[in-house]
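Study this protein:
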Amino acid sequence: MNPVDVLRISMEIDRRTLKAAGRVLQVSPDLPVLALYLSGFDKICHAFWQYRFPDDYGKARPASEDSAELGPVVDRYLVFLDRVLEQLIATYTRPPNVIVVSDHGFGASLTHPLWKGWHSPRGILIASGPSFVHRDERLAVSYYDVVPTVADVMGFAAPAGMRGSSLLRRKEGHRALGSGAVGGVRRVAQ
């Protein structure tokens, strides 16, 4: 699969999703919850990982010219997402709570039939906004903690018997990661 085509399609889908979200917020600027699924970064990592981290591929590394040209795409896509999410957040009339979740990380793959970048066990969760206390340390979380946290932020109790716990209720800095590890959470500076 041509990685440049993946970039073009990923950007188009994420741009349309973000444009629609912006229109929703124009109509309802006090909307209590806006959930977005931005799939582009996942696709970018699948298609461009070998160019961003060529040393992870040993003898199967891409040509250095390809890495020089295509390697920056992963970082630039994050800059793009950061910029457009900042613009979307600025649409709110008051500072919103924002939770960014990736259910997996990425790493080199020498065996996947299509992609050179493939899923790794640790993802990321970033939380910021009026409900989240600033922490300098990372907090170990599981994807089971996402729904209880969102429910807590919204003022609801998590459903009985649900696995995981709200990050708003955590006092300790770390706990053991179970299966379903997401990674660390840290409130980012405003």
